[in-house]
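Thread: Newbie trying to understand structure tokens

Hi all, I'm a second-year student working on a class project, and my supervisor (Dr. K.) asked me to get a predicted structure for one chain before our next meeting. I've only ever worked with sequences, so writing a 3D structure as a token string is new to me. If someone could post the tokens and maybe explain what I'm looking at, I'd be very grateful. Here's the chain:
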Amino acid sequence: MRVIGISPTVDFAFKVLLGSPEHVQVTLHFLNAVLGDQHQITSVEFLKPFLDKKRGDDKLAVLDILATDDQGRKLNIEIQTSLPLGIRQRLAYYDARLYVDQLSEGDQYQALRPAIVICVLTKTLFPGRSGLHSDFRLRDEAGELFSDDLQIHTLELTKLHVERENLGQAAPAERWAYFLLHAETMSGPEILEFFREPEFVEAAGVLEMINQTPEQLQEYRARMKFQMDEIARLDYARLEGLQEGRQEGRQEGRQEGEFIGQISVLQSILGISKPTREELLVSSLSELTAIVRQLQQQLADRKP
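---
Reply by user tm_fold:
Sure, no problem. This is what the structure looks like when written as tokens:
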């Protein structure tokens, strides 16, 4: 049985899937599944159609959408795949820029529309949180909502705990997370069996079309290689950082040992016992340096 063979977590496939005007129902279904709001998104306009832009760099990870809900509200939405270093700052920056850029000189603040960023993550961003979906808005420490004009939604795919047999009982966001993670290894008949909504069947068809279109397949493979190379580069940088940290730690440990030895000698000469060795062991390098200088000054003051 032939599998789809295209992973939606590769940013090229992700953007073809959710950024094509020909498949707007797929985008609507995804947005409503993630936002889960009482107001359903009813229409979308792609402000920067994905297939119309030049590709090949990190900007591929951003898709701009102007959405309208069933109350007539306009929503500025950006959808992104996993981002590299500084992801929290980047998400906050994208959301703030999306909000501020709406306002021109002379416009009233009341004209501002809610700005929403959705980020699908293939790695864990919040280790202390167990939920798949996180919804960040402006609230106080007691949970009182100040405004929902700025929203950042994340889907951490590593936190999906749904089996294929239980997809029928899963929440919409969980079903989409499962599709994004596993569509690559599923066949068309399996999609029909476990995802009965027509939007998932259409989404699977979009992925299959990538596999059957030489130009798109070439772009997909190039982006997959780019993402894998980027992951390897970041992993190497982290490893280098750990090794440098260990080396610095060993060097700092030797320095601390030398300072504690000097302090012990000076204390013996001065006939004092404070601070104790136990207290010195928990002192920072700068604190040890200050103690050495203080004791040296005391010894200098005692000389005739």
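A couple of things are worth pointing out once you decode it. Strands lie at 41-46, 62-69, 74-80, 115-121, 133-139, 145-156. The CA atoms of residues 246 and 252 lie 10 Å apart. Feel free to ask follow-ups in this thread.
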